[in-house]
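Bench notes, afternoon.
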Amino acid sequence: MRIKLVALLAGAFGLAATTMASAADMAVKAPAPYAIPYSWTGLYAGVHAGAGWGTVESNVDLGGFTLPISSHEINGPLAGLQIGYNYQMGWALIGLEATGSWSDIKGTAPCLFGIASCTTKTDWMASVAARFGGLVGNNMLVFVKGGAAWAHDKYDANILGLITTSASDTRVGWLGGLGAEYRFDPRWSAVIEYNYMDFGTESENFSGVAVNVDHKQHLIKAGLNFKLF
C-alpha cells in the first residue's frame, strides 16, 4: 500500500512539473505584441466643405482723384477636394497641399452713390500651399500653412435698372492659414482649418471704364483625408 501511495504521489508531482514547464515555455514563445508607431509620411487625398466671407471694394481713378464706387460684403458656401504629401520628422511635419473648391460666395449692395446695384460672386477657388506642423501625441497634428491662391470673380453693375455692365477675372493672391487634423484610423483623419486670402487690387474693365477692385476673403473648412500610401 505504501509503495502504491508513493508511486501515486510521484506521478502527480511529475505531471505538475511537466505542466509548469509547458506553461513557462508557452510564455517564452508568445511575447506581447509590439505596436508599430503610426507615420504621417505619405500621399493623401480628401474632401472638404465650409463657408467663405469677405469684402470687395471698388473705385475709379480720375487723374489724381479717387471716386469710390462700391464697398460690400460677400459670403456663401464652398465644397471641394484636396491632395497633398506629408513628411514627418519626429514630432515635426512638413508638407505640400493643393486644393480646389466650388463656391457660391456672393453679395449685392447699392453702389455709385445709390444709383446702381453692384454684385460680386466668387464661383471657384484654388490654392497651393506649404504646411508646417507639430504632433500632439501621435494622433493630433496642429499646423500653419501659406502659399498661392486663385479665385474666379464675376462682377455685375446695374444702373437705374436700365443699364447692365459686367466683368470677370481670375484673381491671383496669397493665402495664410492654420488648423488641426486628427487621425482616428490608420488611414483616415478629420481636419478643420481657417484660411485668409488676399487678392490685392486689380483693374477690371466695365464697358471701357477701368475700375479698381480690391478683394479679401476668409474661409473656414472641415474635411476628411484618406492616406493613399
